[in-house]
Amino acid sequence: MASATTPTPAGGSSNPSGGRVVAIVFGALLGLIAAVLLLAGAGLVAAHAFERDDDGYYASDPERINSDGYAVTSEGIEIADLDDDAGGWAAREFAGRVRVQATGAQGAPVFIGIAPTKQLDAYLRGVAHDQVDDFGAGDVEYRRRPGAVRPAGPRDETFWAASASGRGTQTLDWDIDEGRWSIAVMNPDGDAGVAADITLGARTGLLLWLGLSAIAASLILGAAAAALLFAGLHRSRHGVAVTGAAAVGPADLEPTGGSLHTRPEAVSERTYPVAVDGRLDEPLSRWLWLFKWLLAIPHYIVLAFLWIAFLLLTVVAFFAILFTRRYPRDIFEFNVGVLRWSWRVGFYAYNAIGTDRYPPFTLGEVPDYPATLDVPYPDELSRGLVLVKWWLLAIPHYVIVAIFMGSWTWPQAWWASTAVDSPEVAGSNSWPGLIGILVIVAGIVLLVRGRYPRDIFELIVGFNRWALRVAAYAALMRDEYPPFRLGR
User: Fold this and answer.
1) 176: domain range?
2) What is the pLDDT of residues 27-43, one digit of tens each?
3) With b meaning 16 or more CB within 10 Å and e meaning fewer, what string describes 142-158?
4) Is residue 357 part of a domain?
5) Is residue 255 part of a domain?
6) Which candidate, 275, 117, 245, places its Cα nearest to that of 184?
């Protein structure tokens, strides 16, 4: 039975145009960015609300420092010119106050101070001490500064911008100022052997401002994404619509309420509702297949964006099915178009090398192209199956598809094979898969003998047909379980 073509609706195309495809892809990308910004912004606002202590400081966990020298110092921290209005306001608003707390080991007294780096370096010149290179994560790393001079007691020095000393927990609060600054931890009398638990903290409005800005940006981008998706997915409802035209001829259609629908008996006559076919387009060039990886790059770039949109819209479809039992028609047509486009590119390139005819850049049907795919639109889908079929029920198929596809995948095979959590099962990082191996064999035979082995071609098309049926099932397009066979 001849495949049916979908009549073009009056006042609008049944397949997305190039402009609508661009709108859908960019809408999906903006939606993804908006979602990431929203989550990041919410996390930053939550951190501002719940991660600060009672005094409003974000504080690190205590870290133990130890040195047999006379001091432990930090690297110099440069703070920009605060006289500039914008820079000064930003610095004071976002990181306006620093807190350092130190508790001497075993109750010993401890001294902590913040000073200009040049003056602290001059004070410790020739004094054996340690400079901290890495602080945090339970591991403090030091850089040794050798010397033989014993310093004077730090409490008697006047260059400290802020300092605290004594027994128990000592707290140093410092309002930041421009310049280069360093922190020092010592014994109050200047003796060697420094051991203390240190906590660093800052009181800042930076996280709140960043969080609110990210949320605002996400709302703006989300609105833009919604507008683009609406523009890309919206189409005229006037004219003739065909429900389920895959592998259905004109005799299988009947008028219902002004539209053409597939006769139920015609659907039942078909083997599986996901129709995937490939026709060996001979004669084939002996050598062109060696360069198709280069020729197909424009398609691969477009498909990368299309598959991002495909995955995001499938999530939308999941919730639509869960609440309404229906797959949104425009999303369905777009996703079928992505599968169709991907199959044509795979058939041209390294999932079959079955034609030398360059694939068209369209989501729509191209009946005279040697690779075709169609999925009839389901009138209703199961709410229960949508919860389990894409991950649990499809696992046996995912294992098989991973063996077929290996790492030589185009996007829908990636969708199927990576659904298995175990990389040992998916095998997508280790070998080309059965399809890749057979394509290499067919390419070598084509190169040497000038013909494509027919039996190998049928196997390759069967493997791809299997993978595409699983991809459509995993994308929630049909409730019928994919058959374990290569044929139609």
Assistant:
1) 58-208
2) 777 888 888 899 999 99
3) beebeeeeebeebeebe
4) yes
5) no
6) 117
201 with 278, same domain: the answer is no
Report whether 477 contacts 385 (CB < 8 A): no
Kindly report the CATH number assigned to the domain that includes residue 178. Answer: 2.60.120.380
Number of H helices, E strands in the chain: 14, 17
> Could you tell me whether strands 242-243 and 259-262 are parallel, antiparallel, or unpaired per DSSP bridges?
parallel
Residue 50 host element (H or E): helix 18-50
How do residues 51-75 score in pLDDT, each as one tens digit? 888 888 888 888 899 999 999 999 8
Question: Which of 208, 238, 258 corresponds to the end of one domain?
Answer: 208
Where is 337: in which H helix or E strand? helix 329-348
Contacts of 50 (CB under 8 A, 6+ apart): none
Q: Are residues 193 and 121 in the same domain?
A: yes
Average pLDDT over residues 360-376: 95
The candidate with the shortest Cα–Cα distance to 482, out of 397, 414, 357, is 397
**Rounded CA gap, 299 and 297, in Å?**
5
Q: Is the model's pLDDT at 429 over the cut of 50?
A: no
The distance of Cα 421 from the centroid of its chain, to the nearest Å, equals: 16
The model carries a pTM of: 0.58
Looking from the CA of 339 toward its CB, the CA atoms found within 13 Å total: 31
Q: How confident is the model at residue 96 (pLDDT cuts 50, 70, 90)?
A: low
- Which residue type occupies 375? V
pLDDT confidence of 8, banded at 50, 70, 90? very low
Location of structure tokens 């914008």:
86
Burial class (CB in 10 A: 0-12, 13-18, 19+), 407: middle
Q: Judge if 397 and 468 occupy the same domain.
A: yes
The pLDDT of residue 403 is 87
Compute the distance between CA of residue 414 and CA of residue 401 in angstroms, rounded to an integer. 10
